[in-house]
User: Which sequence fits this backbone?
């Protein structure tokens, strides 16, 4: 089968034929219909996210169940599913408290492997790892059954694929993690694929003022299309005074970081008012942060991480599709351009240049 494989840091992704083993007990094979091109995968290219090599990339996809292993009870062949990169077990301490995104099961196996610590891909006898458990840059994906979220068959799979990461992460950060309140003010740093969905989440939650900050006018225009009420190009002006000017000198109620840089991580804390919340959604930067503890302490500010939008995948993903059906959540509009798998490196380039809201690979 064809797959997009990364062999090392800062290398081009190679699309080639690799071998795939069948599913073991508790696993399934999904024929991938579509996969979003996510910045998380590019973080693996640059080393911002550490993974073992070689690895099949892709962490945002949907498809149809092709085969099931022994003991599988959650899905059957023919089911349409979203691929969730967290295999929430439903039984561990975090799952039973409603924090399925932090499921302890997902820690088993080690990075780049399935839950038993091995892989199902190889080439010339060399194991190839699974990025984000789901490895959706491939014609077929072998995953734990817990990673498959069943959906109605009438939902277009290319739209459903986006729920697998960017939409759940962004909307969830606003609705689940921050619990944005109606009438509040929100600022977003980074209007990429995740950030646009933070904007959507803020709109759904009823925020009155949604301020998008980015370095590219093209991305800021996209943010307006998804509901931002104000935009700031941080390459032209210091965003912090501009945010304060738009919020009566107080700062925003909520600030979201959706890029993953030291500067923007720090700016979220500066951008919020006393008792405001700074939510870090982008992958954490490798370099240490420099924060003024005084403004956090005296202002009673809250800093929160948001992992996978604090989602309960089996509950939240179908609910997001319900919002799409109702015309509340925009999915069609996110897909700016589609690609063949062989064009994956071009898709990364378009993403980095700010040319797309979301690039999508169709099989």
Assistant:
């Amino acid at each position: 089968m064809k797959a997009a494989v990364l062999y090392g840091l800062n290398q081009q992704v190679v699309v080639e034929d690799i071998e795939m083993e069948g599913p073991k007990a508790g696993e399934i094979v999904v024929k991938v219909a579509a996969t979003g091109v996510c910045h998380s995968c590019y973080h693996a290219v640059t080393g911002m996210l550490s993974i073992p090599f070689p690895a099949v990339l892709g962490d945002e996809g949907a498809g149809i169940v092709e085969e099931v292993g022994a003991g599988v009870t959650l899905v059957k062949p023919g089911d349409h599913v979203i691929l969730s990169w967290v295999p929430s077990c439903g039984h561990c301490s975090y799952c039973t408290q409603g924090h399925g995104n932090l499921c302890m099961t997902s820690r088993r196996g080690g990075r780049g492997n399935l839950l038993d610590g091995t892989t199902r891909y190889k080439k010339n006898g060399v194991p190839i790892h699974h990025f984000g458990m789901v490895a959706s840059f491939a014609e077929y994906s072998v995953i734990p059954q817990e990673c498959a979220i069943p959906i109605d068959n009438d939902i277009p799979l290319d739209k459903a694929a986006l729920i697998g990461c960017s939409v759940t992460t962004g909307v969830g950060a606003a609705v689940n993690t921050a619990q944005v309140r109606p009438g509040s003010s929100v600022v977003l740093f980074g209007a990429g694929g995740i950030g646009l969905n933070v904007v959507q989440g803020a709109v759904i939650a009823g925020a009155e003022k949604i301020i998008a900050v980015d370095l590219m006018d093209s991305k800021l225009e996209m943010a307006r299309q998804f509901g931002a009420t104000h935009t700031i190009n941080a390459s032209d002006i210091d965003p912090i005074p501009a945010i304060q000017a738009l919020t009566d000198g107080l700062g925003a109620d909520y600030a979201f970081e959706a890029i993953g840089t030291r500067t923007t991580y720090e700016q979220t804390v500066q951008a919020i008012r006393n008792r405001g919340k700074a939510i870090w959604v982008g992958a954490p930067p490798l370099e240490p942060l420099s924060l003024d503890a005084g403004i956090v302490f005296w202002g009673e500010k809250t800093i929160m991480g948001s992992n996978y939008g604090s989602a309960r995948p089996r509950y939240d993903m179908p609910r997001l599709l319900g919002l799409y059906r109702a015309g509340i959540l925009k999915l069609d509009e996110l897909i700016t351009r589609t690609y063949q798998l062989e064009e994956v490196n071009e898709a990364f380039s378009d993403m980095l240049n700010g040319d797309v809201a979301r690039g999508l690979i169709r099989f």
